[in-house]
Each structure stands twice: as structure tokens, then as C-alpha cells.
Design a protein that fits this description.
The chain is about 65% helix and about 5% strand. The protein is mostly helical and about 375 residues long. Among the domains are: about 20-60; about 165-375, Orthogonal Bundle (MetI-like fold), CATH 1.10.3720.10. Strands 1-2 form a two-stranded antiparallel sheet. It has a two-stranded parallel sheet with strand order 3-4. Strand 1 (about 5) and strand 2 form a beta hairpin. Helix 5 (about 110-130) runs antiparallel to helix 6, helix 7 (about 170-195) crosses helix 10 and helix 14 (about 325-335) runs antiparallel to helix 15 (about 345-370). The longest helix is centred in the C-terminal third of the chain and has 30 residues, at about 345-370.
Amino acid sequence: MSTTTVAATGVAHREQPPALVYGPIAWLRANLFNSWLSTAVTLALAYLIVRWAIGFIDWAFINAIWTVPSNANGTLDSTACRDARGVGACWAVIGDKWRFILFGRYPYDAQWRPAICIFLFIGLYAVSAMRRFWRKELLLVWVVTLAVIGLLMWGGVLGMEYVPNDSWGGLPITLILATFGLAFAFPLSIFVALGRRSTMPAVKILCVVYVELIRGVPLISVLFMASVMFPLFMPAGLNPDKLLRAQVAIILFSAAYLAEVVRAGLQALPKGQYEAADAMGLSFWQKTGLIILPQALRLVIPPLVNTFIGFFKDTSLVLIIGIFDLLTSGKVALADPVWQGFSSEVYLFLAVIYFAFCYVMARYSRGVEKYLGRSVRR
């Protein structure tokens, strides 16, 4: 701790603690150089990291190919990229295929519409993340924004060309599946978690069977059942489109996993909280909505966000039923003979997009956890 001294003038001066006791140098000594073995491991890892970083910079930036010329027939000539393979990256593939990767098979002249939808999704996430907007009006903002997104994606009005969802693809599909999937799965998971703790046997058994059945099979199986088997049980002439079936499958699958996370929070809550709520004479829904759930959800914020991030990335599994999400669009872009063999650059581009969304979710969850945890700190 810092000390306070009084100078001859009588004014107190606060002295800073020694750098070797507190501060970055002390942290390095305590965590990275506290023994000869720790020092050796630190230096070895530092050498490997620096060497890898230098090699990556050389490959990704210094020796990279950013553009390639066109042939006489108008196609791009990737000879320079093939000559530089293993030495420098070929970012020309991203410059040529980025629109297909982001928007899939959506009509080229109308790709401004899914581009606006991407920004609307990001804006909706940003507004929802600000605590000053956590009011009832936020639900109306969600409804209006999602309606505008649907209007832009489908078109058919205001002079916009109608585009069936079979032609959708890329990042908008990933955002649609993840947003609608988690938005509907989260409230469903709360009801399922409460149902598993219910004193009514029929409700409890139904919730247990649902959770165990869904968690006992992989998501690919659920998507396959929704795409192939589900239409067989529908009345003649009623066949929901492929995207809707995939969305329902993701909602049901996500809700089963989220329900177990929520149930863990309910079980971790001290019994005294339930007894205190009962002593106040609150009804079941008042007790659950005002006292139990807020505390239970605060306890399980990290696993909840971890599940959100996992399902955001699992939307790429819709490839099995022929939906072109972001990852699938990247794979299809590599089918072009001009760019075959340059998968590293495409997958790195896709990884940056996935990382950006997942990192923001993780950072935001830490902020929410810290904010909600202030009331329980001593």
C-alpha cells in the first residue's frame, strides 16, 4: 500500500508504492519469472510466439498478393498467387469473392438489401446491449426492426424484386438463424427449467423427456429430422419451407441446453430466497419473476453466454439441409477453379467474422456480470 508523508510545509504527499512490490514489474516477477523453470518456459514461449508472429506478418502482409490481373477473356489470372503459395497470402480471392461469401446466391444487383440487414442486426444488438434502453419499448424496436429485415430480404413490395429464401445465404442467414433461434429458445428454456422443478408430475415428466431426448442426439440429426422426416407427418399440401424447419430445429435444440443452464442457476440459489419470497405472500409468478429468476440468471451468465456463442457457430451445420450460411458460402466460393487451393485465406477471413461476433458477446457478458455483481460485493 502507498504511504503518506508530511513535508516541511505541512502538506501531505502520497508516495507511490515501490515498482518491485506493486505494478507491472512485480506482476511479471510473481507470475512469469518466479522460478528458474517458470523463467525458462516463459522465454521459450515468448521466442515461439515472436517467431510465429514474424512469419505470419511476412505471409499475411509483406509478401501477400492483394490484386491479380485479368485475362483476355475477362477472368482473373491467379498465376501470381500460385507462384507465391507458401510464401505470401493471396488476398485477391477475398477481393473477388467477398460478396458471394457474405451474401451467398442473393441476386447481385439487390445485394444492398442484405447488406442493410446486416447493419440493422448489428444496430439492434448494440441498442439491446445498452442498459438505458432496457424498457418495454425495446420489444417494439425488435418487432419493427425484424419486420423491416424480412421486408428487405423477401422484397416484392416498393419496387423491390421478390427473392425467395432459397436464394438467401451468407452472413444474413447466420444472423437470422442465431438471432431468432436464441430469442425464442431463451424464454422457452426458462419455462422448461421451471417445468423440470415443478411439483406436477405430468409437467415435470414432459420437460424431462424433452430435454433428455433433444440432448441425446446431435444437432445434425435434429436438422435432418426437421428437413426430411417432419414434412412426412404434415397434412397434404402443407410443407413449411426449409429455412423455417431449420429455424424450429435450432430453437428446440438450443432451448434444451439452455434449460439445463437455467436449472443450474435455480438449484444454486439458496433455499432461504424461496422461503423469504413465500413469507412475503407473493404468488408463484411474482416470486419467480421478481426474486428467483433475476438472481438465478445472474449466477449463470458465463455458461449462458458460452452456450450462446456455441450455437452461433453451430448454425454452420445447416449445410446438411442445403442452406447457404456464412461458412457454406465460403466453401462454395472455393469451388471456382481460379481460386482452388486458397482455402487458408478464405477460412481466415471467415474466422475473423466469427471471432468478432463471439468476442463482443464474451466481453459484453463480462460487463453485465460485473454490473449485476456489484450488489452482492462486500
